[in-house]
Amino acid sequence: MKITLSNELREKLTSVHGVTKAEIEECFDNREVDSGLPVNPEQNTFFVARTNRGRPLGITYKLAEKVVHVLQLPDKTVTMEQEGPFFEVVEVDSAGPLCEKVRGIDCTDEPIDSNKAKELVPRSRDFGFSEGQPIDRYYVDQFISRYREDIRGRVLEIADDNYTKRFGKERVTQSDILHIKPVQSATLVGNLENGEGVPVGAFDCIILTQTLPFIYNAKAAIQNCFKALKPGGTLLCTVNGISQISRFDMDRWGDYWRFTDLSLKTLLLEVFPEQLLKLETYGNLQSAKTFLSGVPAQEMQISDLNFHDSDYQVLIAARATKAQTST
């Protein structure tokens, strides 16, 4: 079967989403696909198309009374809400109109049903921020709250001072915000990867939440955090385990790593003494699946969120303290 992009979506892609005509022609014009799904509004199912190599080309589905189109380009995914057709059929092969017996998601002869179609895309691509608190942030809150007494004296946080304000309170004598760019909120402009602009031996506490995955040389960043701490100072660090790509970060400075407790521990032990290092993992199968779907923490039971299975690490957290006398 051969398809092409509908004129309505073609216009919106170019005018709103900045997709070039060349990209549209390459990805969607007169494309041969080996699976499709007939429109069936009663089952909230519209159309799924895959290329003959099995790569998803696009999905249209209905969720909570909204029609959502997801289009896959070579280097990005475009999601939009809009009524109207997704693809227009240019040519149908002998298998029959719109492949009455279509090939399924796994490229077998099983039909595609509405539930499988919706499973191909998350409910949101912003980790759940648009609907509440992301599950990984729920776990970050738990970790930072547990070690709130370490947030004292001069404290450094990355990009903003959210956790410093919420958990440090009167124990904090000076709050610094490090940003790689000279934004208004930054008190320090610097780079953790090369240490430029980061004071040495200056901080009683560094709060480093969800930052290392976006630094290519994570090892150097940890070493520079160690240097920036005063003797006896503490690093409170969290990193992603199971997680989607952060498209915001990927398009700006990069999204490089997902960690395990072993990889984070190994990196930290290169500079911090083992007796002053404590690691924790957060998450389980259900919270991992829910997090990947972009569903917020509020939609899970607290007891389910607080059950932790070390084989399904949504978040890895570490409390690492610099020795009082450090070489």
Walkthrough of the structure:
With 327 residues, the chain is of the alpha/beta class. Helix content is 24%, strand content 27%. It is globular and about 70 Å long.
Tell me briefly what this model is:
Helices cover 24% and strands 27% of the residues.
Task: Using brief descriptors, characterize the structure shown.
10 helices; seven-stranded mixed beta sheet; 327 residues; alpha/beta; 27% strand
Question: What is the overall pLDDT average?
Answer: 79
How much helix is in the residues? 10-25%
Largest sheet report: 7 strands, antiparallel
Report, as a whole number of angstroms, the end-to-end distance.
68 Å
Structural class: alpha/beta
Total beta strands? 14
Which band does the percent of strand residues land in? 25-35%
- As a whole number of angstroms, the C-alpha radius of gyration is 24 Å
Uncertain residue ranges:
33-57, 59-65, 85-112
Order of helices and strands: EHHEEEEEEHHEHEEEHEHHEHHE
Count every helix, treating DSSP H or I runs of 4 or more residues as helices. Answer: 10
* Shape assignment: globular
Strand order of the largest sheet: 6-5-4-3-2-1-7
Oligomeric form of this entry? single chain
